[in-house]
Amino acid sequence: MTEDAGDLDGLVRKRIRALRLAQGWSLEELAARANLSQSSLSRIENGQRRLALDQLVTLARALDTTLDQLVETAAEDVVITPTVDAQHGTMRWPVKGDPGISVVRQRMTEPPPDNPARMRAHPGREWLVVLSGTAVLLLGHRRIRLTTHQAAEFPTMMPHAIGAEGGPCEVLGIFDRAARRGHRPDPGPREC
């Protein structure tokens, strides 16, 4: 066995134990869920028994995870450098584990649009939190005031726009792939 394979083997064993403990399960509880004997599971966690693919699949299911997540390594870089769009006051970070998700930080200085026709609706979901200042979220016919540390989550098929109130504000948003596509910057007032 190569050193890399040994490292992966040890990582998977530690991950099985950590996931079991995170669930608050004893060896006996996980063994029953995975249809293994308690002694077999103990030997798997302690490196005294060979890891078999069929057992890993069964353990992943019992731990409510996937085989991919169970054997995934941290070999790739964990630091993500944002893409900066100074013109629109945004920073965007992709989420490597789910390429459809983006995290966006935006500084806003303009209030939301007065004209309801400027509100957008598109497929997707959005979650946002106000990092500083006060933001106003227009959501359908509602006007929602969000202060620092308050968050909102909504389906983006509802016409919406966001802007600042009483000075600049900073917002951190999480967009799924569909919501992100619906938020292409335009030269008009800042919209969510």
Can you put this structure into words, describing what you see?
It holds the Pfam family HTH_3. Keywords: DNA-binding. It is a single chain. It contains 6 helices and 9 strands, in the order αααααβββββββββα. With 192 residues, the protein is of the alpha+beta class. The strands form 2 sheets. Strands 1-2-3-9-4-7 form a 6-stranded antiparallel sheet. Strand 1 and strand 2 form a beta hairpin.
Q: Could you give the order of strands across the largest sheet?
A: 1-2-3-9-4-7
Secondary structure category: alpha+beta
Q: Oligomeric status of the shown chains?
A: single chain
Q: List low-confidence stretches.
A: 186-192
User: What is the H/E order?
Assistant: HHHHHEEEEEEEEEH
Q: Could you tell me the number of beta strands?
A: 9
Nearest-integer average pLDDT: 84
Largest sheet: 6 strands, antiparallel
Query: Proportion of β residues?
Result: 25-35%
What fraction, in percent, of the residue positions are helical?
Answer: 25-40%
Shape: elongated
- Number of helices, counting only DSSP H or I runs of 4 residues or more: 6
Rg calc: 23 Å
Question: Summed up, what is this model?
Answer:
With 192 residues, the protein is of the alpha+beta class. It has helices at residues 3-23, 27-34, 38-46, 53-62, 67-71, 177-181; strands at residues 83-85, 90-94, 102-108, 125-132, 134-139, 142-147, 151-155, 160-164, 169-175.
